[in-house]
Each structure stands twice: as structure tokens, then as C-alpha cells.
Prior knowledge:
TIM Barrel; globular
Amino acid sequence: MTDFIGKCGGYAVIDGGLATELERHGANLNDPLWSAKCLVTSPQLIRRVHLDYLEAGANIIISSSYQATLQGFEAKGLSRVEGEALLRKSVEIACEAREIYYSRDAKVSSAVIENRENLKQHPVFVGASVGSYGAYLADGSEYSGIYGDAVTLETLKDFHRRRVQVLAESGADLIAFETIPNKLEAKAYAELLQEEDIKIPAWFSFNSKDGTNVVSGDSISECASIADSCKQVVAVGINCTPPRFIHGLIQAIREVTAKPILIYPNSGETYDADRKEWVQSTGVVDEDFVSYVGKWYEAGASLIGGCCRTTPNTIRAISKALSSRSSSVTTLEF
Length: 334
Ligand code: MET
Ligand SMILES: [Zn+2]
């Protein structure tokens, strides 16, 4: 990951919200599979949204498998084989978007050499998303992190095992464990990566609703330490959390790990899990979001993007803010 970040110019831009962007384009995601529903109903729309994020400056695009689980597909009457094929498809769609992006780039540039340079400046990784067990429950419990005593470390490992194996062999560059709500699930992922000898790297991304702990109340330091001790984990951070909480969380994570820190906050709006909708007017507009970016970078985050309700415009603004920042730093150094 450090190498990739270096190739990107010292920081890498992560994409923005996928599910909420699919909705903005008219997809109805009111379904236990959420964005993964589009794997069946509108794969072209997923590809288009990935492409929009690449055009906006993203170096890392995250697949539509957040809520795609074999158990969820089975509940819809799909077989194990069909479910595994859909998991792979989520990564294939993202890889296709990357191909299209590169070929468009190649067309714009007539000189081959110049084009090679462009590609070097815009490396792209595809992350295979793994949402938490709470996301599969589709009852908002990835925002409470409370699974109850019946859910043990083994339950979580068994729940995630096959999906992680399939995604690890799907052609993705890394596994993006997203919106991890508690310590138990982080531990389950770390043990799975080791037990299954997963060959591609992973990142662990937690969510918080108070800026001190992850949503379950477990301390961010303990959660980030689990990520730090797992050798396959190449970056650790926070997603789907209001921007105002991010700075303190970066500082807490920095104290327990030297691994790259990733952050992709949501727009700051609140999600009403009962009504299954976002409460507008509680969030920050793109300009405000971007005013935070330099501070997050200075605090130690080197992978920065957006989560729910952020759009390609947010990512364009982040990308611009970071590039003007690094060019002004370069000027100062000269
Ligand atoms: C609830 S967080 C969702 C993360 C996922 N990568 C998405 O943007 O759809
Ligand atoms: Zn989100």
C-alpha cells in the first residue's frame, strides 16, 4: 500500500458513496441486498458510477459487494454457485470500469509515451468490499455494533469465510473491510485472513458516532491495534462517520499504528434506520467537507475519500484540494 500511495503522489484518493450514488441515479435499493441488488438489476449503472468516480480523480474504487453475501443471495432463492458468481461479478464490474477509464485516457492522448506517463500518475486499485454482519442483517446494526451474546467470534468467522475466500480470488487488488462496528468483528476478520492464508492485502475501516469509540462503544485504539497486528492489513481507518469526528480518530489511530491511515467519511447527514432514509440538512456541503481535507492529511491520513451521500463532485473537490496542497508544499520546499 505504501508503494501504491507513493506512485499516486504521496496520497491516494478513495471513491465516494456507491449505494447512495446508485440511488441518486434512480436505483431503488430498499432491499436486504441494498446496493448488491444492482448486480442483478443494473450492472451497467454500477459500472457507470465507478467510472464517474475514476473521472473525478479516485485511485481506489470499491466494489458493490458491501451487502452482497452468500446468505443474503440464498434468502433470495439463488444457489451457492450463483451467489459466488455475483460476488465475482461485483469485482469484474469495477475492473471493467478501470479498463474503460484507461482506454479513454489512451484515446485522449495521441503520444504513447505521454499516455504511459498519465497512467503512472493515476494508478487505480480495485477494492473488494466486505460489509459487516450487521450490514447483512439490514436492520441498521452496523451503526450500533450490538449483535447480542448469541453472536460469537466463530459465528462471525463462519459467516464471512466463504465470501472472503471468493473475493480474494476475484482479481481485486485488496479486500476493503468496511464499516466495522465492533472489536469482535475486527478480530474475526484478522483471524480469517490468517487462517485462510488470504493472499491479497486488506484494509480495516471502522465507523464511529462519537469521535472516540467505534459505534459499539469499543475503543478505537483497541480496534486499530487488532488491525495493526494482522500482517495482511495494509491500512486502517474510518468510514461512514461524520466529518467532524474524523480528526480526533486519526490521532487516536496514529498512536497505535504506523500503517497508512484511510478515511472516507459520510456527508455528515444522519441515517434514520427505521425509516430507511437519510435526514437532510444535518450534513456538510462539498466545500465544507473539503475544508477538512488538508487537516486530515496533516494529521496523518494518506488515503482520503467519501462514503454515503458523497458524490463524484465531492471526490473531485477532495482530489483538487489534495493536489493543490501537495503542489504548494513542493513549491515551498524548493
Ligand atoms: C454503509 S457504508 C457503505 C459503503 C459502500 N462502499 C458504499 O459506498 O456503498
Ligand atoms: Zn457509508
